[in-house]
Amino acid sequence: MTLTIEQKKPFEILSWLNVVVGMVLLLAQFVFGTLPLSIQFGYFILMLLMTGIPHGGLDHIIARTTANVNNKKFNILSFLGRYILAIAAYTCCWLIFPSLSLLFFILISAWHFGETDIPDDKHKILLSVCRFSWGTLVLMLLLLMHQQETTEVLIRISKNASPVINFWNLCKLNSNKLLISATVINGMLLYSAYLTNQLSFSVIRLINLLLILIISIFLPLLPSFALYFGGWHAVRSFELIFEYLNVKGEYAKESPIKMWTRSLPMSFLAAIVFLILFFYWDQSNITWDPLPVIFIFLSVITLPHLDVMDQMIRKDHKTS
Question: Helix crossing, 5-32 with 234-247: angle to 10°?
Fold first, then answer.
């Protein structure tokens, strides 16, 4: 069972609206030469608050629904305890092992982006490879097309670790080869999955995604990431969550807006985590830059969120 056309409309409208916003930002950049930092940060924070953080704010509801589907008991305090423990542990890893934590974040982000971008109706091994490969390509586009800004962020969040900087310099040196190779590999993998009837897609949705990625290439790093993360990934995640909770009967016939309001308590908790990170980073001896705080914050809340989403997607496809 899937969402009806009428139920999908709000998500489709929102994702196309983000394409329009991206084009407006591009136009402003063309007219004024560069986007003021105030606009870049304002747009990023807006997307983070509207969709970026809230799309993970329903994790407790998803986990409870998954537990019910599995005929298991669900305890909200136990769930929150595990959730916060994962965030705290990963935060400590960032403080002690920044380079390894950065690598881990890149790997889980690649998987998470691919898992929501590519439908996986049959959960075959080929599609799992496709998802990770696609998520890797998305990250490569966002990072390698904004080399100067990415370099500045990497220096700060890795504490200028030589292995990280040397590897990044190697990637920059071969950026064209890497992007072309990754694009070709993804094309081959996705086409193979399509030919073997493991992959189905909407042409309109594909055009929507490609437009967002193309626009992201020409925007500065911060609004570029905001457009993909908040304007596509979070919206797509909300659609998957809305479908899952409706189909499983947890919140049948509830509107997307009502579902969004249910994310606010956990979103508030995430905001507290961000303020804590902000405080500790500001007190450290690292040159102040808000970008590392933002990306580390996103990484520590992504870890438990990814686990919840992964279980939801696997359960949804097994029982659909």
Answer: 170
In whole angstroms, what separates CA 263 from the centre of its chain? 16
Structure tokens at 106: 């890149």
The dihedral sign for the CA sequence 147, 152, 156, 157: negative
In angstroms, rounded to a whole number, what is the distance separating the alpha carbons of residues 307 and 59? Answer: 9
259 in Cβ contact with 242 (< 8 Å): yes
Tokens 């659609």 sit at which residue?
Answer: 239
Biggest CA–CA distance in the chain, Å, is 58
Per residue of the chain (320 residues), give pLDDT as tens: 455 545 567 888 888 999 999 999 999 998 888 888 888 888 988 898 888 888 888 898 888 888 888 888 888 899 989 988 998 899 888 878 888 888 899 999 999 999 888 866 566 788 889 999 999 999 999 999 999 989 988 887 777 788 889 999 999 999 999 999 999 999 999 989 888 888 877 888 889 999 999 999 999 998 999 999 999 999 999 888 888 887 766 665 667 888 888 888 878 877 776 777 666 655 655 555 566 677 777 888 888 888 888 888 776 545 44
Domain boundaries, the chain: 5-27+36-319
Distance between alpha carbon 164 and the CA centroid of its chain, in Å? 22
Other CB atoms within 10 A of residue 72 CB? 9
- 235 close to 14: Cβ distance less than 8 angstroms: yes
Contact (CB, 8 A) for 304 and 87: yes
Using a cut of 0.85, tell me whether the model's pTM lies above it.
Answer: yes
